[in-house]
Amino acid sequence: MIKLISIEWHKLRYHRFFWIGMVLFVLLLSALLVSFGSFQIFGSGAEADPNDPSMLAIPANLADAGFYKLPYVWQNTSYLAGFFKFIPAFLMLFFMASEFEYRTMRQNVIDGLSVGEFFFSKIFSLLLFALVCTLTVALTTSALIYSYNDLAEADFWYQSSFIVAFFAEVFFILSLAFFLGILLKKSALAIILLILYYFVIEPVLGFYVGSPISDYLPTRPSRNLIPEPFTRLFKINSFLNIENLDSISIKNLLLSFFYAIILLFGSFMVLKKRDL
Amino acid sequence: MQIILEIDGISKRYGKVQALKPYKLQIPKGTTFGILGPNGSGKTTTLGIILGILSSDSGSFTWFDGQSVNSAKKRIGALLETPNFYPYMTAYQNLKLVAKIKELKNPNIDAVLKTVNLHERAHHKFKGYSLGMKQRLAIAASLLGEPEVLLLDEPTNGLDPTGIAEVRDLITRIAANGTTVIIASHILAEVERVCSHVAVLQNGSLLYSGLADELSAKDAVIAVAAADMQALENAIKDLSSLKKIRPSDGHLHLSFSEDMSPSKLNQLLAEQGIYLSYIEEKKASLEERFLKILTRDKAN
Hints:
The complex is a heterodimer of chains A (276) and B (300). Chain A has 276 residues and is mainly alpha-helical. Chain A is built from 11 helices and no strands.
């Protein structure tokens, strides 16, 4: 186990892409989360009209709107961070595919690593990426909670389960990248297919099959884990008839881990069956 | 004699092409074993199977005393086809990774880099290496941990003449230490110079396996010359056991259907009053035998 981690870490630590990708991810994400509150809102400063309930007060910026306020801050930040999950996913996919592009996995096996050992050493990368992402969001959010909330009157941990949801979301997309990297062996091709599948193929497919089947398509549970928080933030949810959840759906959480495990198991089978 | 590798009927089919037909082969410990064959003859397929990166359609193979392939590989240094390394790592970092995979406690990284003359470039990135340097790094990697078996596929690929001579010299030195060396090559000279045993593969079939000496000892050719070449030729044509006569470079190359030694030939000719100015026994080179085996197979 320690041997496999040491092998994989040796591969990562000398790679400039790994450091650039990770530093970029951590810096960009935390910078965005910290500065997001000062974003101006379109039409800000409008007063509420007591005679017309559809006229709402529009706060000056997102911080004023309560973006950093407990208990919803966990959901707000993890939802926003979800857009950044493609950075570690592309890194994962790139590292996976280059093991085939440079035929280094073949060399690893010639040198004495079994296919199973290779697989589990890569799982270390996957977990490392997922943990770095989750910790970045968790630590930044904690700092924001301390500076924007009075902890005497609000519970720090209430709704913090959204961090678990964020971990599951990242874990799923990393598993998908892992699988595509192994299956296609070419990073450029795999990145294109990942984007196409995530943003075009599955949404179109979902549209055709309709609800509730569409809720069970592979990427759906992970996408639905963290519902968008903005309708509630701007208090327009009641107009739009949107019911905002206060906690994560356990069903979606389990389903996204389930799909991730299926993808990883599939990756393992492809590796096992394939001649190197 | 201890058998280090036993191949028993491994085979491989790619679609319609039977890349390797089932065959048996034993490689004894401490030998320098050459696997000869033209491109596409099944050499690399054989090596891929015994290293566990290709699956075999049939048969089996046994390393050492029936150890699992993965643990056996830690005792084997292998270079298969092109050198594969992480381009962003230096030579030293790449070898360190190989040492981790092979679970070597005190890897002799500096020593093997010195052996292949790469020590001065040890801390340069692999992607900047020339083809010859890449090949030498691959040889260095195969030497890590002083393996009991060295398995080299076309080891002089991409090397310049000096490099080729160095690698041949290196292989001879390693073999002299008792390491079993298995070399696959389509270059006969490479195998002929260093190998004690030879197996010849063509179109996925094993055509010959045995001692390299036995392969080249048969069909010796005797080259002769005399002051009067015409008289010499006439006298030789009268010999009943003559099989073939061929003039070459002012000499006559003779082959005989039965045993004929230079001294016996010299005696026979002297009895007829012909005194030789030149006589040499030329053992058929492996190349001639090799081509003979290949053409014989085609004729069948």
